[in-house]
Design a protein that fits this description.
alpha/beta, 335 residues, 2 domains, 11 helices, D-Maltodextrin-Binding Protein, domain 2, single chain, 46% helix, 6-stranded mixed β-sheet, 3-stranded antiparallel β-sheet
Length: 335
């Protein structure tokens, strides 16, 4: 029956191929029907800093909306240390299934560059992650204790050059954004300050409020209330234009420090090779979360601008800022 002429053989093969294809269609449909819709279990958002800072607040607000919209538990897991690298490494080494995410900020690209140049980065920031969405843009503000007799960043430079002051500045770790700002300011203003690293924005702010360090900085939402209340002094903001909430505070470019200009942000990253459909779902839910009226008001009150960007834009800002700051981090060996 299966032998005979070559023509009969071809017909036989075609017959069996058609039969196999016909049987495969319902089998594939059955497998698809059995696959659970994402998310089928709890999601973890890793915050690579201690609780209390801007990144933690943004993560918790997004997690709240995720849980309500996707009818699933969403856990915020604070894993501070090493300028955010410890938390980022957990995500980089997690399964690429969308259930472990990183809530990052501008410290992620800068710290990644610093640790890579020092040959001690546990992950590759360019290849081990994929963007989900920029949740918010948050201006970065350089601050000082009220006892510092300088009205802005340029004034601080003049003060340090004129007097033999032993000032300390704080950051959230080696290669973090404030570390880069502090060292670049020292170079460009031709001054000296000692660097003290902390495990996150919250402990850094406490030290600055106490006066144990004189200069610091973080995303605006971390210190806006204290600036308005007079417990901290705003010396400059990092963006291209002045901040709506602090219209009298000049930008770094206005004060002659154009090399310090950058866009502050908070956004979600996932492990590389996370399925595109899962990334699309997470991006859509992030955009919906940050645009929800209740959450939007919370962000606005904190001085943050809700965004909900595409995954491509989140990936792009990380790569752009890595490229922007690699030369200065290499030059100053910020490890």
């Amino acid at each position: 029956m299966f032998g005979g002429t070559s023509g009969g053989g071809v017909v036989g093969k075609a017959h069996w191929l058609l039969l196999a294809a016909a049987l495969a269609v319902p089998a594939a449909a059955a497998v698809a029907a059995q696959a659970p819709e994402f998310p089928a279990r709890p999601i973890r958002i890793v915050v690579p800093f201690p609780a209390g800072g801007t990144t933690d607040v943004v993560a918790r607000l997004v997690a709240q909306r995720f849980g309500e919209a996707m009818k699933q538990t969403v856990v915020v897991d604070n894993r501070g240390g090493a300028g955010g690298a410890l938390g980022a490494d957990i995500v980089a080494k997690s399964a690429p299934d969308g259930y472990t995410l990183l809530m990052a900020n501008i410290t992620f690209p800068l710290s990644s560059v610093a640790q890579t140049l020092a040959q001690r980065s546990p992950f590759n920031a360019e290849t081990d992650f994929t963007g989900v969405s920029i949740a918010v843009y948050v201006p970065f503000v350089i601050t000082a204790h009220p006892s510092v007799p300088a009205k802005d960043l340029r004034d601080l430079g003049a003060l340090l050059r004129a007097k033999n002051l032993k000032y300390n500045y704080g950051s959230t770790g080696p290669g973090s954004v404030m570390h880069v700002i502090g060292e670049t300011f020292k170079r460009d203003a031709k001054v000296d300050m000692a660097h003290i690293a902390y495990k996150g924005a919250a402990p850094l702010k406490l030290e600055l409020l106490s006066g144990r360090i004189q200069v610091g900085g973080d995303q605006l939402s971390t210190s806006l209330a204290e600036i308005r209340g007079g417990q901290l002094k705003a010396l400059a903001t990092s963006g291209a234009k002045r901040v709506r909430e602090l219209p009298d505070v000049p930008t770094v470019r206005e004060l002659g420090f154009a090399s310090l200009e950058f866009e502050g942000w908070n956004g979600l990253l996932a492990p590389a090779k996370t399925p595109a459909a899962v990334i699309a779902k997470l991006q859509s839910e992030t955009a919906a979360a940050v645009r929800h009226p209740d959450i939007q008001k919370r962000f606005t009150d904190l001085g943050a601008e809700p965004v909900g960007s595409s995954s491509r834009e989140q990936t792009a800002i990380v790569l752009q800022q890595m490229k922007q700051f690699t030369p200065v981090i290499r030059e100053m060996k910020l490890d």
